[in-house]
Amino acid sequence: MSSGLMSYVWEGLGNTLLLTVFGALLGLVFAFIAGLARSSERKWVRGIAMVYTEVFRGFPSLVLLFALIFIVPTFGYQLNPLFAGILALALNIGAYAAEVVRGAVKAVPPGQIEAAIALNFTPLQRLRKVILPQAVVAMIPPFTNNLIELLKATSLVSLVYISDLTFSAQLIRASTGETALVFFGLLVGYGVIALFFTAIMKLLERMAARALGRTVPSGFFGRKEVAA
Amino acid sequence: MDWDWEYAIDSLPLLAEGMLVTIELTVLGALFAYLLGLVFAMIRRVGVPVLSQFVYLFVEFIRSTPLLIQVFAFYYLLQPAIGVKLSPFLTGVIMLGVHYATYTSEVYRAGIEAIPKGQWEAARALSIPRSRVWTGIILPQAVPRVLPALGNYTISMFKETPLLLAIGVVDVLNSAKEAGAETFRVIEPYTLAGVFFLLVSYPASILVRKLERRVGTV
């Protein structure tokens, strides 16, 4: 492959990683806001969070991408395509991850929260010092699944002409006709990126658990969680 | 740009047709995934030498790569290589089925592992033939418990069908795209396509949650 074509690969790879990392970070923000709002005392806050999670879990991310890329410009704005991609993916994955946040917060033993109240912690302190440190450890394994789902979903942006890894690969396939090489390379490439992200999440999980004085079973893959 | 009701109503029949294709894809793909997933899970559980390891690698590989690229690879690479030409629709059904079979196999695995060991031992003590142990004892207990999880994956599958527009399947999103390309009005068809999805997936997720409450989760 010529160096000109290779530069497409690097650009595509960069955009795919950018979409995944920033999509995950923005999605994390949405997830925490919506997930914590679900356990709010105010009904309307819970309501808004519920509508967000239900609506965005009900939409295919591709429909969301089409909406942001093709509908928004008809109102006179033009989002940066890469940002539109990140936003669409983040809104979608954030709705799934919000359920993870809610579940993990609910799973903190009530005795912990009662103890924090008895010790006169403010609600914010309770959240920051008691609930979250324990909940975060429980969130990381399902977040790993969400992250891999997000990575896989980034390939959809090629259908709205954002130059991610899949898009670059299609360009290369069109100009060289190397169908086998391109698709095989793509599959292996995504597999390797997924392994890389899994390894990072595993490391994070160990760090979070160690901060609580727990240990996580060793082994690269550990015990697999079934996302249901 | 404003909302044009007349145009929205005009494009409804086209979108409804597309929706039918989306639902057909989901139902057929899901049936394939339920079946193939069970086969994968049983191969892994029984521990057929070589095949079992192969299935493990296959499942891990399929699960960590995007469906879109698998569809491309199957459509543009594998089919010409083995000399068959399947329609985009059939390609979609097969790839949805295979992709989600890797997920359902994990679900079945969890369901089978949740069966107490005593059941296996009792079956052996009574020297019930192996095939009968599966069909008469293990699966009738494991499958109902995994139904909610299977339901959830069916909903995700439903939401992944629009990516098949990349190989030319005319589903609801592709119908919307075509309607938009003809008239240069995109708000109505895309919004309606989104509404169509929500109209199916939200009631479906409520149903799954009801089922969950009834049979419990694995």
From TrEMBL, chain A:
Give the transmembrane region(s). 12-37, 58-76, 82-101, 180-204
| Record's bilayer topology term | Multi-pass membrane protein
Compartments in which it is found = Cell membrane
GO CC annotation: what is one?
Answer: ATP-binding cassette (ABC) transporter complex
Q: What keywords would UniProt list here?
A: Amino-acid transport, Cell membrane, Membrane, Transmembrane, Transmembrane helix, Transport
In this chain the ABC transmembrane type-1 domain maps to 13-205
Tell me which domain of life the UniProt entry assigns to the organism this sequence originates from.
Answer: Bacteria
MF terms per GO, please?
transmembrane transporter activity
Instruction: Tell me the Gene Ontology biological-process terms attached to this UniProt entry.
Output: amino acid transport
**SUPFAM superfamilies to which the protein is assigned, alphabetical:** MetI-like
Q: What family does the Swiss-Prot or TrEMBL record give for this protein?
A: Belongs to the binding-protein-dependent transport system permease family.
Q: What is this protein called?
A: Ectoine/hydroxyectoine ABC transporter permease subunit EhuC
UniProtKB/TrEMBL annotation, chain B:
UniProt keywords (A-Z) are:
Amino-acid transport, Cell membrane, Membrane, Transmembrane, Transmembrane helix, Transport
Q: State the GO CC annotations.
A: ATP-binding cassette (ABC) transporter complex
Chief location of this protein within or outside the cell = membrane
Bilayer topology reads: Multi-pass membrane protein
Name the chain's protein. Ectoine/hydroxyectoine ABC transporter permease subunit EhuD
According to the entry, every stretch annotated as the ABC transmembrane type-1 domain falls at 19-208
User: Per the UniProt entry, what species is this protein from, by scientific name?
Assistant: Prauserella flavalba
GO BP, one annotated term: amino acid transport
Q: Name one Pfam family in it.
A: BPD_transp_1
Q: Which PANTHER family match?
A: L-CYSTINE TRANSPORT SYSTEM PERMEASE PROTEIN TCYL, MEMBRANE COMPONENT OF AMINO ACID ABC TRANSPORTER
Q: Which GO terms describe its molecular function?
A: transmembrane transporter activity
Q: Which family does it belong to?
A: Belongs to the binding-protein-dependent transport system permease family.
Q: Where in the cell is it found?
A: Cell membrane
* Gene3D superfamilies reported for this sequence: MetI-like
Give the transmembrane region(s).
20-43, 55-78, 190-208
Q: Which CDD domains match?
A: TM_PBP2
Which NCBIfam families would you find in this protein's record?
ectoine_ehuD (TIGR03003), HEQRo_perm_3TM (TIGR01726)
